[in-house]
Structure formats: C-alpha cells, structure tokens
Fold these 2 entries.
Entry 1:
Amino acid sequence: MKALVVFESMFGSTHELANAIASGLRETCDVDVVRADAVDAIAVDAADLLVVGAPTHAHTLSTEASRHDAATMTSDADGDLDLEEPVMTQGLREWFDSLEHLAKPFAAFDTRSDMPRLLTGASSKRIERELRKKGAVSVLQPESFLVTRFAGLKDGEAERGRAWGEQVALAFRTTMKR
Ligand SMILES: Cc1cc2nc3c(=O)[nH]c(=O)nc-3n(C[C@H](O)[C@H](O)[C@H](O)COP(=O)(O)O)c2cc1C
C-alpha cells in the first residue's frame, strides 16, 4: 500500500508533524512526503491513501494574505520564528482549486494553537470538506496537533503524530475490507 502525505507549513511545525505521521504510516505502508506547492499528479495517482495537513490560520486554511502575515511575523524584532525555506507561496487551498476530481481515501490533520478548539478553529475540518467535495472518502476523523504559541510542536505531539499515522493505516485497511 502506498500513502502520500501532503503538507503545508510556514514555520516548520506541520512539516515536522508530517514526517512523524509518515514514520507511523511506514510501519505498514510505502510513504512519500511532499509539500503542497510541489504535489505531482502522477504521485497522487499512484497513491492508495492521501494524508493531508496544514497549519490553522484565522480558524481555517491559510490564504495568500495569512501566509504573508506569517512571513511578516518572522521579521518582528522580538520574534523567534523562522520560515521554512523555500517559503510556500501556494498552499492546500490552491492545490484543491487545481483539482477536478479526486476519488481517493484520505485523512486530514492540522496544527493549531494550544487553546480551546472553539477559539482556534481547525484547518483539518476545511481540508476534509474540500476533499469530500472532490469525491475523496475520509477513513478517519480529522485530527489536530498543538503548537506552542505560533510554532514548535508541543511536547509529545510528534509521538502522537506517529501513533496517529499508524491508526490511519489501520483505518484505511478496515475501510477497504468493507
Ligand atoms: C497568520 C496566522 C494566523 C493564525 N491563526 C490561527 C488560528 O486562527 N487558530 C490557531 O489555532 N492558530 C492560529 N495560528 C497559529 C498557527 O496555527 C501556527 O503558527 C501553525 O500551527 C504552525 O504551523 P507551521 O509551523 O507548520 O506553519 C495562526 C498563525 C498565523 C501565522
């Protein structure tokens, strides 16, 4: 079974999490990890399962404007944020816009601030909605992983990501048997 992890990331936390999730999936699957601005249609075609994640910006998926805001934050005098290089100028939103139909099993994840969900929102809900509109089928509930303030996975979140990756692979198998 081949899984493709597609991620968006401005400060690197969602990238780190995507790698942790991939290591869990690798227990039972072949896995590639790819940025949202470099997704290749052939790789998507070849994948049996998509695992798709992004940071939460303004309660949902990033936009050009929110990515610009993120980039601005790194130049604040007291900022200790670093941008992923090369900086992502396109995110999942743009990738979804480019897709016509995508009838694949998937699971969605996000990173978000460590505050009550009602206050933060969660981009994984939007990812789920957009992929379902394209004909994709969710194998597991969307999952959020927490960062400390703006970036940096909280302690234990990478391990939880790895375990979630294993869970996604199991859920995929169960879905396929039905
Ligand atoms: C412009 C901007 C808006 C944000 N809005 C939210 C938000 O509405 N809810 C939230 O939980 N986190 C919010 N955050 C924090 C991000 O979720 C956090 O920076 C992200 O999870 C880090 O992932 P990354 O390192 O992969 O970019 C925001 C961050 C930025 C830069």
Entry 2:
Amino acid sequence: MITVSDLQEHPLDQVHRLIEPGPVILVTTQHRGIPNVMTNGFNMMIRHAPPLIGCTIGPWDHSYTALRETGECVISIPGSELAETTVDIGNCSGQDVDKFREFDLTPLASQQVAAPLIAECFANIECQVADTALVDAYNLFVLEPVRAWVDPSRPHPQMFHHRGDGTFTLDGETIDLKDHMTKWQYLL
Ligand SMILES: Cc1cc2nc3c(=O)[nH]c(=O)nc-3n(C[C@H](O)[C@H](O)[C@H](O)COP(=O)(O)O)c2cc1C
C-alpha cells in the first residue's frame, strides 16, 4: 500500500501548476476611451445564478487600474487557434502597445459596458465589478456577468489551460456522466 513516504513533496510556490483553474481568458477594459486587453489564467466561477466570476488581476497590469477606475470589463474566451496570440498579449502592456491593433483583434460594441467584445473569441461575457473587498488583499475581483455572447458558428470550440510554466493543455475528449448527476439534476 502507498504511504506518504512514497510521495514526492511539491513546492508550495508551484501549487498553481497542479490546479491552475479554468480556461485561459482575455480580459478587455476601456480606460479613458482607449480599449485594452490582457491575458488571465487565474480565474474561477464563484456562483451559478446570478453568476459571479473571480479574476485575479495584479496592480502590475494596466488593466488593474482600468478595472478599478471603470468597474467594467469583458471576459473573452479564445479558442486554441488563438493560443500563441493570447500568450503574446500577456507579455506586453497596454501602457506601451495598442494591443487590438498589434494583434489584429476586432473590437465589437458591448451592450452594457464600455469595454469591447473580441470578434475572434468564441464567447464574450460583459461584466461589472460586483465586489472589490478582496482586491487589496488578493488582487481578486469579483465580477458579475451582465450580458454574454457566443459565436453560433463555433459549437465545439477548444479552450486551452495554462499549466503555469508556459505550457498549455488543450481541451480533449468530452465524456458524458449525466447519469451520475443524480443530486444535481437542475444543472443538466
Ligand atoms: C498565460 C498567461 C496567464 C496570465 N495570467 C494572469 C493572471 O491571471 N493575472 C494577472 O494579473 N496577470 C496575468 N498574466 C499577465 C498579464 O496578462 C500581463 O501582465 C499583461 O501584459 C497585462 O497587460 P496590461 O498591462 O495591458 O493590463 C498572464 C500572462 C500570461 C502569458
């Protein structure tokens, strides 16, 4: 039988590589009339309905200032065909670069927030900041989706997930375990 001595200790500062959640997303903001976009890997669902999403966005990002000052953003979900572009977007700042132009992204008008949707992403979620209580301590913004859009021409998009070290996992096979969801029928 396996015991704890058979296990290898994993460094705490590498724990994110075991559990980095959610897909890699893009977060758009609009600050003083200028649209910008950043890459975000630290994100999670917080509540089903009404939905809440948590995103960690650090003060080193121009997007942090934009989000604090405007209270609005769009979460745009890229497919794996945008993986390289997405990483490049996360390696420069809107303070220096017009990222929409640099990366050939097409901004589309949102309906309820000033920040733009991204046409090349298969899903876009317009969000308002719902709670900043955890921002000072953890850079964690609680976001409330107010409108959401999906591209109907892309019914089976492939998301990608950061493994925390510059490598990524692409969505693979889907398995259907609805039969086991006996307690959670309302989610199906
Ligand atoms: C794969 C990847 C994931 C990232 N995840 C985050 C994140 O979760 N939170 C964060 O603050 N920055 C994250 N970054 C870094 C920002 O995207 C980066 O600092 C970006 O240049 C900020 O742009 P801005 O200054 O225009 O806001 C990530 C970068 C990459 C490449």
